[in-house]
Amino acid sequence: MTFRATVLTLYPDMFPGPLGTSLAGRALEEGKWSLEARNIRDHAQDKHRTVDDTPAGGGAGMVLKCDVLGRAIDAVADERPIFAMTPRGEPLTQGLVREVSSGEGAVILCGRFEGFDERIFEARPVRPVSVGDYILSGGEIPAMLFLDACVRLLPGVMGAASSGEDESFETGLLEYPHYTRPVEWEGRTIPEVLRSGDHARIARWRHERSCEDTRLRRPDLWDAHGERSGPSPSGARRRK
C-alpha cells in the first residue's frame, strides 16, 4: 500500500521542496509514497478567484473562506484523515506521526493570512495540528515537517527497521547524546563508557543520560514520563 499525501495550498510550487531530497525524496522516487499539491484557489468561483475575506467583527488581516475550503476538501476527500496546519491546533507529536504513517496517507490543509473560517472545522472532519508555539507565514513548512516525520517511518524508508526506536520522543524521553571518531577533539574525549565494549554499561549510561537531559531540557516531558513510569530511575532525580 502506497502512502498518499495530498496538500491543499495556495502555493503548490513549494512542493515537494525538501521532501524531494534525502530519505523522503528517494522514497518518493521509489514509489513508497506519493505527493500531490493542489491549489486551493482552483476552487474559488468568482472571476477574481477570491479565497479570502475580511474578518467578521473587524480586525487586521484576511481569513480563508469556508466555502472555498469546503470545495477544495470535497474534491480530494476519501478515507484518509484530514489535517489543517494552524497554531491553534493540537501539538504534533511522535504518537500522532506513528498513527498517520501506519495508515493510507493524509490530506493536509495549509493555512495563510489570519487562518481558517472556523466553520470548516464544524462542517468537515478536519483535525487542526500545530508544529509549535510560534507563528509562520503559512502552513506549507509545517506540512513538510509533518510529512517528513511520517515518511521516514514507512516500511523500507530507513535503512533498518529499528533505526527509529531509540530516537527522541519514541519512549517519552529525549534521545541520549551521540559521539563518533576522532576519539579526542580539541581536548574533548568520547566518554570512556562508550569505548568500553560493555554493552550493559553503555545501555545504562544511555538511559541515564536520556533521563537527565529530558529532566533538564524538557521538564514537561519528564513530568509526563514520570507519571507513566512511576518512580524515577537512579541518577535522575525529579525536581519540581
Quick gist of this model?
This protein is 30% helix and 18% strand.
Give the CATH level 1 class of the largest domain. Alpha Beta
At CATH level 2, the architecture of the largest domain is: 3-Layer(aba) Sandwich
Structural classification: alpha/beta
Could you report the average pLDDT, rounded to the nearest whole number? Answer: 92
**What percent strand?**
15-25%
Radius of gyration: 22 Å
Measured as a percent range, the helix fraction is 25-40%
- Give the biggest beta sheet: 5 strands, parallel
Please indicate the count of domains. Answer: 2
General shape: elongated
Topology:
Elements lengths: L2 E7 L12 H8 L3 E7 L12 E2 L9 E2 L1 H9 L7 E10 L2 H8 L3 E6 L8 H5 L2 E5 L9 H12 L32 E2 L2 E2 L9 H19 L1 H11 L11
Parallel strand pairs: 1-2, 1-6, 5-6, 5-7
Antiparallel strand pairs: 3-4, 8-9
Helix pairs in contact: 3-5, 6-7
Supply database-style keywords.
240 residues, Alpha/beta knot, disordered C terminus, 5-stranded parallel β-sheet, Trp Operon Repressor, Chain A, alpha/beta, 30% helix
Overview of this structure, please?
The chain is 30% helix and 18% strand. By secondary structure, it is α/β, with parallel strands linked by helices. It has 2 domains: 149 residues, SPOUT methyltransferase, trefoil knot domain (Alpha/beta knot, 3-Layer(aba) Sandwich), CATH 3.40.1280; 75 residues, tRNA(m1g37)methyltransferase, domain 2 (Trp Operon Repressor, Chain A, Orthogonal Bundle). It has a 5-stranded parallel β-sheet with strand order 2-1-6-5-7. It has a two-stranded antiparallel ribbon with strand order 3-4. A hairpin with a 2-residue loop joins strand 8 and strand 9. It is elongated.
